[in-house]
Write a structure and sequence with these properties.
Radius of gyration of chain B: 22 Å
Radius of gyration of chain A: 22 Å
Order of helices and strands of chain B: HHHHHHH
Structural class of chain B: mainly alpha
Distance between the termini of chain B: 37 Å
Shape of chain A: globular
Order of helices and strands of chain A: HHHHHHHHHHHHHHHHHHHH
Helix content of chain B: over 70%
Strand content of chain A: under 5%
Number of strands of chain A: 0
Oligomer: heterodimer
Distance between the termini of chain A: 44 Å
Strand content of chain B: under 5%
Largest interface: A-B, 91 and 77 residues
Number of helices of chain A: 20
Number of helices of chain B: 7
Structural class of chain A: mainly alpha
């Protein structure tokens, strides 16, 4: 009964535009007071504090900061120059460049919105100038950026790891193969579009140019190799890897490229701080809800109820996929992970789904959610850079979402795709 | 007037957020370097976690002033103005009410915690680290109130609540970057001014 009231209250508050974090916390406080009385109130302050001190989540501000510094050092231009020398000779070259640069950039920044902002603001106008339709330019940029969430480092993966108590490093490793498959799939789709609509070729292939641009971008490639190598090799934790990334980005920007733009950097630090605290407030609020839910055993009851219908692992995965796809339509991905993952984990464990495997399913699924309006952070950023209508872009984007969906199905039903590397290195 | 106050408030919160983020980065980097040299800090995890909690609440107050918290504006923007304004009133009351409770309970808890210290740094009182809850809650209310008039104006005027791209989104000037890419291709490297 209280739970029904809670859900009702939660939806009501969210619909009248109470921030989701506050809606969660307020409903949890109301439920606690209703069931236990006002003596419980001091716990609210304690839990909201403890909930915000989760050490592994420190990786989030660190990777945001590293990405921001990289972005303030002219690295995006170097990545694009290299990608263009490598892929520009193909028909529809600039869309290939867009996807390729996105794949590289994803290894530095953990967030798809950052990816779209950094690359889209350069590539979308460039594509427009070459005669690509506005909607296509926005769609490619937007969907390719979503790959950033499954290629390490990834902020949604860090969040998932904390909410589900699984290994960040293993999640990172599991994302590599699906991320590459997604990139290849998108390039194939872009090529198909390019053939059909006769999009232009960028330039002829020149080995000398490739070598020159590679030399310029060399440190940009070396950095993720060093940092991810450190994390995968077990020399540093994910959080420390984030710290190293910050240091390395500063050295790269300040000493090697000497192009650090301080004003830009300061703005990025503030923006990163705000993004982090927005997510962290959600995490703290969910800790409050967690206290209540644990007491009521709701996640366990949910697990039992679903298990009484089916205990087939693939059927449960299918159900969860549908559930997350619907959630992704309306919720920001960080909010969805924080809200839903703790509730479904007992079910996931009960049917024997590997939490790392499931993490990839969730991240990819919510990545698709960033592409589907009404709530679609990445798509909307791309559309506003391109000054294109969201629905027009979606008509093209649906093909690229199709690619993401195919990867999702592959990841869901062929666990070997994400898990082989994890099995080889960690089990 | 209020708009000016809001800007001062944002400026102050931004300064605090920058200091915390920089401190966190310094501590983490230093800790990694010292650990790899076989000499780790005992206080590193605890202090870094405390700073994360501080970043959470000071940053959340800044996000309140910028109205950057994740929410769902669709309905308020879609319904008739009168309803929209009514929703704003209820929503603001819930937010301010919650943080008022948090500020009060946070203050109560501080009294209880008198005498407790951090585990790894006995000279630091938990009262200092936990002070972020009542202070952060009061700052959140301040940020919320200072940004309320603009929200009210927008709903009344039937405008969108959010500009769709955050204003601090780093967007590079096109031609500068295009010239830079060109130069990279030709093997010249131009420094930006």
């Amino acid at each position: 009964m209280t739970i029904a009231l809670m859900l009702f209250g939660l939806f009501g508050l969210i619909l009248i535009n109470v921030p989701i974090a506050v809606a969660l916390a307020a409903v949890a406080v109301a439920a606690m007071v209703l069931t236990q009385g006002t003596w419980i109130l001091p716990n609210v302050a304690l839990v909201m504090y403890d909930g915000a001190t989760k050490f592994p989540l420190l990786a989030i501000p660190m990777f945001i900061l590293a990405g921001a510094i990289m972005n303030a050092t002219g690295i995006s231009a170097r990545l694009i120059a290299f990608a263009s020398a490598l892929l520009g000779f193909v028909r529809g070259g600039l869309s290939m460049v867009n996807i390729g640069a996105s794949l590289f950039f994803a290894e530095i920044s953990g967030s798809a919105v950052a990816d779209v902002a950094a690359l889209g603001s350069i590539l979308i106008p460039a594509m427009r100038k070459k005669g690509y339709p506005r909607a296509f330019a926005a769609a490619v940029t937007s969907s390719a950026a979503t790959l950033a969430v499954i290629i390490p480092p990834s902020i949604p993966m860090i969040l998932y790891a904390v909410m589900s108590d699984s290994s960040v490093v293993q999640l990172f490793v599991a994302g590599i193969v699906p991320g590459l498959l997604g990139g290849i799939g998108m390039m194939a789709m872009a090529y198909w579009f390019a053939r059909r609509h006769n999009y232009p070729v960028e330039e002829t292939f020149q080995l000398a140019r490739l070598r020159r641009t590679f030399k310029e971008a060399f440190w940009a490639f070396a950095l993720p190799v060093i940092i991810l190598g450190g994390i995968f090799g077990g020399f540093v934790t994910a959080t420390e890897g984030g710290g190293l990334a910050v240091l390395a980005a500063l050295v790269l920007g300040g000493l090697v490229y000497r192009e650090l733009d301080w004003k830009h950097l300061k703005d990025s630090v503030i923006e990163g701080g705000v993004q982090t605290s927005v997510v962290m407030l959600l995490v703290a609020a969910s800790a409050l809800v967690g206290v209540y839910l644990t007491e009521q055993q709701l996640p366990q009851q949910l697990a039992q109820w679903i298990l009484s219908i089916t205990d087939n692992r693939y059927a449960v995965l299918g159900l969860l996929n549908i559930f997350f796809l619907v959630i992704g339509l309306f919720l920001h991905s960080a909010a969805a992970i924080i809200l839903v993952v703790p509730i479904v984990m007992p079910l996931v464990n009960a049917v024997g789904i590997d939490p790392v495997h499931f993490g990839l399913v969730v991240t990819l699924n919510l990545g698709i959610g960033q592409q589907t309006p009404p709530v679609a952070s990445v798509l909307i950023t791309a559309c506003s850079i391109a000054k294109a209508n969201v629905w027009e872009v979606s008509k093209v984007n649906i093909y690229f979402i199709g690619v993401l969906f195919a990867v999702l199905m592959l990841v869901t039903y062929v666990p070997a795709v994400p898990m082989t590397l994890v099995d080889i290195f960690y089990r | 007037m209020i708009e000016r106050l809001r800007r001062y408030f944002e400026r102050l919160m931004e300064a605090i957020v920058v200091v915390i983020v920089v401190a966190l980065a310094l501590i983490i980097v230093a800790a990694v370097i010292f650990r790899l040299m076989g000499n780790s800090f005992s206080w590193y995890d605890e202090v870094a976690s405390v700073l994360l909690a501080w970043l959470t609440y000071y940053g959340a107050a800044l996000a309140a002033a910028k109205r950057a918290h994740i929410g769902f504006e669709g309905i308020v923007e879609a319904v008739p103005k009168r309803w929209g304004l009514f929703m704003v009133v209820v929503a603001e009351a819930v937010v301010i009410g919650f943080f008022a409770i948090l500020a009060w309970t946070g203050w109560e808890v501080l009294q209880v915690l008198a005498g407790d210290t951090l585990v790894s740094l006995p000279q630091v009182s938990v009262q200092i680290t936990q002070s972020v809850i009542p202070i952060g809650a009061v700052l959140f209310i301040a940020g919320q109130l200072l940004s309320l008039p603009e929200v009210w104006r927008r709903v009344k005027a039937g405008e969108k609540l959010h500009s769709e791209v955050p204003d601090s989104l780093p967007v590079e000037p096109q031609d500068v970057v295009a010239a830079e890419i060109e130069a990279l291709h030709e093997g010249k490297r131009e420094r930006r001014p």
